[in-house]
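BRCT domain-containing protein
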Amino acid sequence: MDKMGAIFDQCVIAFVPNRELPDSLIADYRKKIEGNGGTTPKARRDGSIKLEDVTHIISTTADFPQYREAREMMINVVRPTWLLESIMRNKPALTRPHTPDPNLIFHNVTVTCADLPEGDKDAIVGGVLAMGGTESSSLTKVVTHICALTMDHPKVALALEKGVNCKIVLPHWFHDCLRLGKRINELPYLLPDPEILKSEPDARLDIPSSEIIKGASTPRPDILPMATDSPRHLNVFQDKRLMISEDLNIGGRLRKVIEDLVVGGGGIITTSVHNADMYVFQWRGGRDYAIASYAGKDVGNLSWLYYLITHNEWTSPMKRLLHYPLPKDAIPGFKDLKITLSNYGGDSRTYLENLVLACGAEFTKSMKEDNTHVITARKSGEKCDAAAEWNIEMVNHLWIEESYARCEIQRITDPRYTCFPPRTNLGEIIGQTSFDMETLQQVYFPKEPTPSPEKPGPLKRPEMNQKGHKEKTPELPEDVNMDDDDDVHVPPVVIPAKKSGLPRGRSKSTTTLPKGTTTPIANRRVSAGKEIDTPSSTNSRSAKDRALTNLHGMAPDIALYEKEKKRKGSVWGGERAANRIDKERQDERNSSPAVKEPREREDSEDENTNPKRQRTGLPQVSMRLLVTSYGPWVANTAREDKDKRKMRELGVLVVQDPIQCTYLAAPRMVRTKKFLCALATGPTILHTSFIEACGKSSVLPNTEAHLLKDTENENKFDVKLKDAVVRAKANKRSLLRHVPIYCTNDVPNGPDTFKSIVQANGGIFSLYTGKISLKKVDPKDDPNGPEPVYLITGEKPGDRKLWPGFEAMAKRANMIPRIVTTSWILDVGMAQQLIWKDEYLIDP
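Structure:
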């Protein structure tokens, strides 16, 4: 065989047909593969692939029944583009850029960088490689994106001259995609006129539609939609056994229609959970649900079943959140929450409403001051402005989706949930979160279910097959043994109870809604009214600190990928080996303190009370260390992860929440948000040389030898660090208690920085936009006399126009208005005492 004919030598390539990859196209691809030395086995009668025989699977999506099993067997699953590129290159192409894995958001991106600083370039290239993309040092035909700051670079000029089909984007696009973990539209970031740099980021923006949630916006549709094909052509149920649970409470007529569609499409209706391939439930729970789930059967709800009938194409019930049975009880942490939506529309809004109700929270159409959360697609609009004034948490939809998928409320301090890229409506990435089987198993069926001898199962109806209604149980294939569960046995998993740290409790009354209602789920609460109810006065409520964390763990993936690219030999074999190494590295990263901080925090609490429960093999946590401004960790995640693992082995847990730390490490006294928020807790403050000492020692270094001493900055800030720590311990995070502090939106470094510092010290923080008002107070009715009220502000024109209104408001409330620079709050936080100098007043 000549060189041309040996491209796919030793490759056995199977196909997963669907609407994007029809049989006619597959036939054409088979000829190309076989003409180049490859083999293309036929699928089984039920459409499944004999995985033991194949090296590659060609599929346009990861949503097919055998995807997970194929990846566990290290079989390459690639898009058809891999096949075409291999033929074009006359050798097997790299598989990673052609993966259909939705988690690798840059899988089809080839980036080349233009006029970027070296550090920024390394960060972007590293992120692209880690998320499935590739990098080219020069401009070639395969480049899809040029990352540049201006249009002046020779690469950009050459691309325009040669007419290269690529997009010229700002680096901000890569940063925002990596922060979200989702790929957003490049349009607002395209040079030469990127929208994100325009002066009106809050200008009107169209609400996008989302194809992925069509047919999946409600768990219980009102009507059975019409199939795209006639019933006799409905083959999605071919040779499949379907069981419909009694908990659906559907009428006999509708059940008969569904059963006829299944039987007419070559399927079988069964009443035995052991014989079923598909099981349709309304609720999670019960013996049948546990048996079906544990055995790996397709378990979905009525919405999922309707979707199969409508599209005549298999889809996993775990791919779309509202295709899976609902929890009978609220997701832990949501019971007392009141949530409203902003900047979502159409199916996206219906989907999120139902998701809120499925979590067990109360959904409100309008927003009042007692709302706890606003889920918004962009940080713009009346509800968002009101939420900022009333200290109501603002998050994007990823928070509610991932809380539902992970079966517990997620911390809103995760920066992914508070990321709102400018000129982007996040509705474009809605519905991309899926369930994970391991998580569901841990929560809902941690033990292997056993059949009940007294109640063998619901046997109320005879089975129906494609030849008619006969009271006969079809025989199982010879290679299936439903009584042998050894291959799927998983030991019970113990899930520790978690504290949600949620806002104050809410009313628990419920409203029962008519069956079949699409938007509200039965027995959940819905409030209606105008969009925003503005109170006459504001009752400020403390909000959780928003910690900003960095993406960790990319560097090991990049190094492995680069190493794998250079390895000689069969590409599919190399990719198998790379996947195995990647998995081991991923497991290692997932066990690092940085990634598992919340779990380790709770595990360590259990260890302190019951040492016998220690499961990690690590010593008990004796120090909770917060690190700030440590140079060796900047843009070096590999070094950071290595140091954190080493410190954890010595009993030091590196935390990101300043309120949780008992020790603070810094190279000097710095007025960063982390340093000032942590100082309010009165921690022991160490020099960052302690981190280096941990890396060189097998025992925990003496902290006394690494106490931070910084005479230069003590003189600069006019404060003794030792005295400040003593005062902080005495204050007990109450230095600014009862001190009202306002902040303008355009203040330098952003209002969130100062909000964190104020709240860490027990203060009352509110954003001032000119709309807020205080109750008028007569000086005669105020025996304590006027108290100061502070406005932290910058000097932009937008800030200046707010000053007169603030002064007038303060005087009406018999308070002393103090319009101050940011230096005031920074000095107060550093000194840990309420100091005042007239020089803090801003020059009008």
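The first helix runs from residue 23 to 34.
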